[in-house]
Specification:
single chain; 170 residues; mainly alpha; 66% helix; 0% strand
Amino acid sequence: MLTAVDYRTLPFSITAIGDSGKYLGRSAYWRLYVIENLVRVVVHSVLTAQIGPTWWMIAVDPKTSQKIQRVKQDYAEQPHHSSPGTHNIYYLFLPDLHKIILANSHLFRPLIPDIDQWVLRIEDVRLPRNIVGHMNWLNTADEQLIDALYSDLRTLIRKLSRTRISVSIP
């Protein structure tokens, strides 16, 4: 079992840095991975149900679409690197997904009546996500925030699965 010790509080040690990284990977990172990808699944599933398979063209603002096309071009120019995915949604970050939900909340509300609360919660996890994404340590409150959102998103997906929505991976 790894001990939760921030390597920055110890004398320099490559092993301590590695142990810190292993701890973060096993504690927070994987939950954030699930959160971000479940949000992608929710956005894709709801907008596909409400608009259709070409929802991207209607629900995503032109500025975001242009940004995604530039990022996709960067990957196309360096094909030896891994690709984020085939659907445009995999090129978005959590703040982008948040904006799409916010701009299209009227389409989410019939299926997720408390969508405004979800929007706030997704925004609330943005900074802790960035902390972990930049390989730093979370405080206890942020860990609890991530754990709660992780658990509640799993519940939301189960609820959506019992509706007319086809929950699907983009």
